[in-house]
Amino acid sequence: MKKSLTLSAALLAASAFVAPAMAEHHGDKEAVHEQLESPLDPILASDIRKDDMARDKYRHPKDTLVFFDIRPDMKVGEYAPGGGWYSRILGPLLAEKGQYVGLFFNPDNLPFSDEAKERTRAGAAKFPEDVAKWTGISADKFPTYTMDKVPAEAKGTMDRILIIRMMHNMLRWNMADSEIAAMRDLLKDDGMIGIVQHRAKADASYALSDGNKGYLREADVIKFMEVHGFELVNSSEVNANDKDTADYENGVWTLPPAFAKKDVDKEKYEAIGESDRMTLLFKKRP
Fold it and tell me: Which stretches are transmembrane (predicted)?
C-alpha cells in the first residue's frame, strides 16, 4: 500500500508545478494532464483525506479533475461544497498559485424555512474556517460567497466552477436558472463549468428524472446548459456505473453511502456501489 503523505509534502509538490511549462502546453491537453499528476498525487494520498479515500473508487477524483483540466494556478469555485470532500483536494491544490472559492446557494431561493435559510448563510460564513481546519491552510486563502452576495470584483474572474452532484437539487428546488446565471457571471470569457451528476436512463420517465429521485437525464442537462449560455466541450464516462438501474423507489439515496433502506437489501446495494454519473464539461459562450 502506498504510504500516505503529509499535507506539507502535498503542498510542496503543488508548489513545484512549473507555470511556464503549463502555459507552453496550454493547447495540448495530454501534456497539461501529465503535469497535473505531479501535484494531485500527493494530495490524494495525504493524511487529511484518510476518511475520504474509501470513496475514491466511486468518485475518481484524479481522473475527474484531470478531465475538467483543473490546474494549480486557476481560480476554481465549487458550488455547494458541503462536507468538504473536494475541498480537501482543491484547497491544497490551489492554495499557492491559484484560489479555491466556496459557492453556496442563494438562500432566498431555497424552498425552506427562514431558519434553514439562515443556516445556509451561517454555513457559508464559517466555510473558510472549516477548510482551514481540514487542510491546515489559512482561512483567508478561501473566499466564500452565497450566490446573492457575490462581490462585483469577483465577476469574470473564475477559470472553472464545479457542480458535483447538485444539479438535481437546483432543478427540483426551482432555482437552477438564477444560480447558473450567477455562475456564468463569475466565469472568465473562456471559463468552464464541470458537472458530475447522478444519471437517469436516456428513456427514463419524467418521474424518474425530474431531480426528485436525485437523477437527471444527460440530454436534459446538456440542453439546459445550452439554453443558459454554455456549449458542451466534452463528456467522460469516468464516473459511469452500469450496475445502477436508477429506478429505485427511494431514489439515488437507496445506494451507498446513504442506504435509505437501512439494512434492507444492503448487500445488494453495496454490490451496485454508488450511482451512475455523467461527467460533463461546458464552456461559456460569448
Answer: none
Tell me which residues of the chain have a pLDDT lower than 50: 1-29
Instruction: Extract the C-alpha cell encoding 265.
Output: 437489501
Number of domains in the chain: 1
Record the pTM. Answer: 0.88
CATH number of the domain encompassing residue 195: 3.40.50.150
Helix or strand (DSSP H, E) at 278? strand 277-284
Residue with cell 443558459: 228
Closest residue by Cα to residue 162 from 196, 191, 135: 196
Q: What is the pLDDT of residue 25?
A: 38
Q: Which residues contact 262 (CB under 8 A, 6 or more apart)?
A: none
The reported pLDDT for the residue numbered 39 is 87
Task: Report how far Cα 200 is from the mean position of its chain's Cα atoms.
Answer: 19
Q: What is the pLDDT of residue 181?
A: 98
